[in-house]
């Protein structure tokens, strides 16, 4: 504690202990250090000579799924629409837009429609989002799943993180409330549970089954928690997986629905990577649930499903706009009223982000003027991601002591690493977990920032790291392989 | 409870009780009913004949400070910059922008500068905001106050509400934590304390002293709370006031600083209405504190001040963009690290909103190409607000049993109403507080939606309502006066 801490109202020992205990490694020590390196490198741009103290000339932020920081270009249609809703007087110059600036009529039409619905992107909307955009989302869900969706059950949010925060606030009623969370997981879940002083009930994903779920181990975790007095109320499923990148099989999903219905658990489906699927097809939990309801009338009618989506991921990658939504299925009306009240305290999600949600769920269709460019950009991003994922995967296959599942989706690979005993000892000497030690060494040597597996949780005795495959080029992949070789040689037993 | 509630994981009786107990009247029952009326009126636009069941033809949302929903035009400079950062390829067509679309060179320059700093508005920024924009904020504070500001102590946020939420999360450590909150207050404070299961320690503002603070009554509230086992840690001050519209005198502010320093309380200064001042000048708490520190070396060095600002209010009115910031003064470094970690869980504030913050704190200067229009728009909004405030105030002066302080600032008037005994009895019969009863009657009769004083807190035995003075025209003011006349006649003893 600093020497003046006692003189103040707040110090590290008396602030909210639940905030203090929360961990969020994605933006933790490594990320902060990587930012320091970035600043150092920027400061030493010519005319000042390059900083000789750093053995690399650029920082690669592979720690966070932030596509547009890594040169992914925004989709033109989305941003043209955004420019018009931001400055509506442009709509009075249709000829200039079309003849001089290359805007297509469907861009102009979309902006007009959105402005008719929101009036101004500078005005607060309803707390769960503008009706016109919630209606677009409902239509998208209907088309995706082949089942009806009611826009009154759609809640727009400032990214999926904000939606998770809302739902967890409602669910967590006491320090005994527990939520089943997959391990490894995106640390938003554990951090939020920590802040809410509720219990994380971990269930492990099966690395040797392509990071799928295993119902027996979920049930064991559930029963153990119950026997310890935890009131388990919800189960989180991230599909496609973060950090694992894996897609769940329909069979796994059906087991999960069945389990949640049987044990009266809210099924919280984080489906933000639903378009980032390289292997097989994405199945939404809503569709799987509706199929099961159809086949078993009455049996699953009361299952509460919350499905989350986001504009930050997919080919959209509009993280900075903070947009997303969740759909509630089977929730009690009075509970939904409390959800509305809770979100109203923070007024509304950013309205331009809401407009981006509209573009995501209702992009230009075949035959419409902007479709060709949209498709070209979309496919280009998709193929680029797949290509880089494969390049990275191929590199991992060559690395000693590294094993990685083949890339299936999302934006991540999550290889296992087996480190020499001496490296593990050195890590412990420095008061770090071995994977953290490895990742810090990698950052210091290469400028590549990845996140240690311990930031997401991993089975006792295993080590991993998560890397995005967003960074352009392949230079940084070879930085990793060279570092790894040197690291292994340095600590070889 | 609905009949199926027991079949689900979540029902009204088992969700988070702290969320359930939170109250947020600004978007409560009245607001929801007014939205229903709005939908009803929209549905009955021609060719369908007007809905004869409603005695008004439009809904006036005077319940919430949402300028652009009520026809306040956005400031051109802000939105032109936003259009360019949304669609940067426009910057390659400088001649079209300037010659065909009326953009000025300083708009283009600002967009370029911002993009150089944030790279893409679709990329996550640092969790406390892009450095380039935090630096702008720091310079603005320096110029406003005449004292240095460090951009490392500036945290951009998704509106001031999000900043308050962050700070309250850090401050509230246990159910015994208490925060002094002015009554009447903006209900964000009580709602947030409720969700956090901490204690609101109310102190009353003095209506007969232009809603100023009274240190004796603050001290009484503080001592009473302490004697009841409350660990009071912070004091909220809203200046200019919401819902009162009042500006604090410098003497009041000095007393508050002195009191907070003496009792080791965080001073949480909600200064979002700092440019909405009609009477006198705005003084920031930062300046008052620095003046006092200069005059009394050492005495106030450890006071923790958090000052909040927003793009939603002032002449900017960009509520839907969700932008704001808070500056921390005198906070412990380790505590600031925890604040950073907490906000990083939600990744970052909307980046376009951050760009709007930049425009707000660094608007076109005299001599710059966009300045003339900016000043004209700014002054137009300011004068319009003052004019409407005065018109409303004049109307209130004529109304039986209504007393109102003269408009000083913010966006609100908060008149006292004295209702006939029979109206109070009728309200109680309907299970409502008398001011809520009055406001509901007003909405049903006129379509004008205001918020009952009970939504903000008021001294026992007094009744008020809060109205914004944002709605254009004066028709709605006469709707209120006519309604009031009829209401008083209906319930006259």
TrEMBL record, chains A, B:
Keyword Transferase applies: yes
Transmembrane annotation, as ranges: none
UniProt-listed Pfam families: Aminotran_1_2
Aminotransferase class I/classII large domain sequence ranges: 105-474
Subunit structure: Homodimer.
Family: Belongs to the class-I pyridoxal-phosphate-dependent aminotransferase family. Alanine aminotransferase subfamily.
Protein name: Glutamate pyruvate transaminase
Organism: Viridothelium virens
């Amino acid at each position: 504690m600093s020497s003046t801490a006692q003189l103040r109202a707040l110090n590290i020992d008396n602030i909210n202990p639940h905030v203090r205990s929360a961990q969020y490694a994605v933006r933790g020590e490594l990320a902060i250090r990587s930012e320091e390196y970035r600043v150092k490198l920027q400061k030493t741009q010519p005319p000042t000579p390059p900083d000789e103290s750093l053995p690399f000339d650029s920082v690669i932020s592979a720690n966070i799924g932030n596509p547009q920081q890594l040169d992914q270009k925004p989709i033109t249609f989305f941003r043209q629409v955004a420019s018009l809703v931001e400055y509506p007087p442009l709509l009075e110059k249709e000829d200039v837009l079309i003849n001089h600036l290359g805007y297509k009529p469907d861009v102009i039409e979309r902006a007009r429609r959105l402005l008719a619905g929101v009036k101004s992107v500078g005005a607060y909307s309803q707390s769960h989002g503008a009706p016109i955009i919630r209606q677009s989302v409902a239509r998208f869900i209907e088309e995706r799943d082949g089942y009806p969706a009611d826009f009154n059950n759609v809640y727009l949010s400032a990214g999926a993180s904000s939606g998770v925060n809302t739902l967890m606030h409602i669910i967590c009623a006491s320090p005994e409330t527990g939520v089943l969370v997959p391990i490894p997981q995106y640390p938003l879940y554990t951090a939020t549970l920590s802040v809410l002083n509720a219990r994380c009930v971990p269930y492990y994903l099966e690395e040797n089954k392509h990071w799928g779920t295993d119902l027996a181990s979920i049930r064991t975790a559930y029963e153990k928690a119950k026997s310890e007095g935890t009131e388990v109320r919800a189960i989180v499923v991230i599909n496609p997986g973060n950090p694992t990148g894996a897609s769940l099989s329909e069979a796994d999903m059906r087991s999960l629905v069945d389990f949640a219905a049987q044990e009266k658990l809210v099924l919280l489906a984080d489906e933000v990577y639903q378009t980032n699927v390289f292997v097989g097809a994405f199945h939404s939990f809503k569709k799987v649930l509706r199929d099961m309801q159809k086949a078993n009338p009455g049996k699953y009618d009361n299952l509460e499903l919350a499905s989350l989506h986001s504009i930050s991921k997919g080919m959209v990658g509009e993280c900075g706009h903070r947009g997303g939504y969740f759909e509630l299925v089977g929730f009690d009306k009075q509970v939904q009223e409390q959800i509305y009240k809770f979100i109203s305290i923070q007024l509304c999600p950013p309205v331009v982000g809401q407009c981006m949600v509209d573009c995501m769920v209702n992009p230009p269709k075949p035959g419409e003027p902007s479709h060709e460019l949209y498709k070209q950009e979309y496919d280009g991003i998709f193929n680029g991601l797949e290509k880089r994922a494969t390049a990275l995967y191929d590199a991992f296959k060559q690395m000693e002591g590294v094993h990685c599942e083949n890339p299936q989706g999302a934006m991540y690979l999550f290889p296992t690493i087996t480190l020499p005993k001496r490296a593990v000892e050195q890590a412990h000497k420095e008061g770090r977990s071995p994977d953290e030690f490895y990742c810090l060494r990698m950052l210091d040597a290469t400028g590549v920032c990845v996140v240690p597996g311990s930031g997401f949780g991993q089975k006792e005795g295993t080590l991993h790291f998560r890397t995005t495959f967003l960074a352009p080029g392949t230079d940084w992949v070879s930085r990793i392989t060279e570092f790894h070789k040197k690291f292994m040689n340095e600590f070889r037993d």
